[in-house]
Amino acid sequence: MNPPTRLALLAAGVLVLTACAPGSSAPPSAPSTSATASAVRTDAAALGNVTLTVWDQEVRGGQAAQMKQLNDAFQAKYPNIKLNRVSRSFDDLNTTLRLALSGNEPPDVVEANNGRSAMGAFVKAGQLRPLDAYADVYGWKQRYPESVLRYSRYSADGKLFGEGNLYGLPQVGEVVGIFYNRAKLAKLGLQPPKTWADFETALATVKAGGEVPLQFGNLDKWPAVHVFGTVQGRHVPPDQIGTLAFGRKGASWNTTENTTAAEQLVGWVDKGYFAKGFNGQGYDPAWQAFGKGQGVFMIAGTWLLADLQKALGDDLGFMLPPGTTADAPPVATGGTGLPFAITAKSPHPDAAAAYINFITSADAMKVLTATGNLPVAETGQQSVAKGPQQDVFTAFGTVTAKNGLVPYLDYATPTFADTLGAALQDLLAKKATPQEFLATLEKDYKSFAESNG
Amino acid sequence: MTAARPPGEPRRVAYLYLLPAFAVYAAFLLFPIGRAVQFSLYDWDGLSLGRWVGLDNYAAIVADEGLRAAFGHALVLIVFYALGPLVIGLGLAAILNHAKVRGLGFFRTVVFLPQVVAMVVVAVAWRRVYAPDGTLNTLLGALGLDALTRGWLGDYTFALPAVGVVGTWFETGLVTVLLLAGMSRIPGELYEAARLDGAGAVREFFAVTLPSVRGEIAVALTLTVIAALRTFDLVYITTRGGPGDSTSVPSYEVYHRAFGLSQVGSAAAIGVTLTVVIFVISFGINRFADRRVT
After folding, report:
1. Measuring CA to CA, which residue among B208, B184, B171, B169 is closest to residue B104?
2. Which ipTM value was assigned to this complex?
3. Do the chains contact at B156 and A27, CB–CB below 8 Å?
4. DSSP state, B79?
5. Which residue from A276, A321, A279 is spatially nearest to A300, judged by alpha carbons?
6. Residue of chain A whose Cα is closest to the Cα of B253
7. Whole-model pTM?
8. Which chain B residues have a beta carbon less than 8 Å from that of A219?
9. Which residue of A268, A272, B126, B221 has the fewest CB atoms within a 10 Å radius of its CB?
10. Which residues contact B52 (CB under 8 A, 6 or more apart)?
11. What is the pLDDT of residues A18-28, one digit of tens each?
12. A44-172+337-381 has which fold?
């Protein structure tokens, strides 16, 4: 073939291809939102022989153990419903779920990440089923505090996050707080801080005592988001953080409170409170170093509990970030594990809902506790041994009971995780001033909030 | 069969024999490329119906400062992936070839060894080397150079070179072995003649060795330049494009936009652009090598 022929063929090929736009060619069939409570069948045993395909990401340690235990119990109770469990790591699930959902035979139940790029996009494309009718009959709204449920709420067009229909139910809870090394604190003659000012004083004392005040590794870009969120919660009213983090109109990053928060964070860099070379240290090596006794405090999430407890035992302590006064209402970044959702194309929504109800029931929460997880509901009712695990349970129970959870800041826009992560690295490396840092965030937030309507 | 034509001449029926292979090639290569080109003309989130935007995605690549920087970083990586290994490889190969080292096979294997290890493993290992409490800083500390220690991958000045050095380490073996193979084919008489003319080792290298391995240099450059431009795993594992955006590269952006940000159209446009850039550069290298050989 001479070059012109080849070109012509290629061009023809491209033309044929461009004849249809990518994506589903028909608008997604709107799942019946009209399903009323009376139309829902809750007697799972009477649903006949059904096979449910479930995609989860509960692959590690206690997560895998609780899932297996609950699945076995469900099968024993409802032998007519067969479970086909597909389990993948968090990353693998995230990258494959999109394709699976746009296919003709998606799984029935999936764990979909709460954020806009996953659950939000699926809702927008009409691929998830609203669960409100099930929530009514099963009493999910009594089982879960609203500050937890709102992490699985979207408007039907996927535009509003944090309110609207319910699209999933999580099993476990997460809260970002302050881990501390009890033994080292005692050695330095310190008590766990009661107020935010106490905490800063403690950091200074630790520094003077020659220890690393805050263990921290920010090579992976996102860890600083949790640290900044914690500092921000001390200075910015929680409802403003909520508006910013859910990507709604009506708030701004360019405020004096946010500036104070950013300045405090930079101040900690100047005073040498963070571990040396933190921007070049990985997240895992950092918390592992904390587990080996390097560092007195570490701002991180409850998901590290099991591993840290293994390393430090009862020397480990956990607390919610203290407020300006000792009795200030708790505010902490946090949320839920990945919620379990039902796909719009699933032919067995009733069976799927019965399954979700089963794995989030009060009994299930006990199984979660027994396998070392932090159950998202009825946290206060669980009996755990005194020590770090009890610290974590108490902290999460307190903060959810008082509706003090504020969302992860990277939920704000589909690109915000990236924007905020990179901007924080710039801020902490002093490549950007607090004002420049906030302007970067404002730009992403504003352009999304306005185009999103 | 008409006897009028001599055997072996191309004729139309030959295309029939090529058809099966072409069908496979088209299904697994041309079709995906065509689809990628198609996607790059849409604003598509990978789920809902795409919206035709023409060349907007391409215009965005030119307009977006961050993306321009990503292509710039890829060019910097060429220095580390291609030019560095070429210089080191020429030196190493010349020494190994010239000295007729005993146990040449052993040294050749040692030099080539990085190539055997998967890039992901290499990246994880180097992440440890560059960590604030890692091997490199321990070494510097032991030498009394504490002032130089830092979190290398988190340093705005050094992160990109640090990633590049891993590439140099990785590619040098390949280049050396390629060049060594080329040099071993140079007839000994050429060196004898050069020596009779009074050439020293250095002169000999530039007059005899270098021109003789031009073909191998072209191959080595093509391979390493392409490797530099499509770097993904190394950046993904070591820095995720950070700190800030100082180590982001086009391949990483393709992945990041398609799977992280749901901007499939934009990701496809970057992919297509990268393909074109790689094609042009490797075409250029081969054109250059061909002309000089004849």
Report:
1. B184
2. 0.81
3. no
4. I
5. A321
6. A418
7. 0.85
8. 127, 151, 153-154, 239-240, 242
9. A272
10. A21, B41, B42, B43
11. 456 776 544 44
12. D-Maltodextrin-Binding Protein; domain 2 (3.40.190)
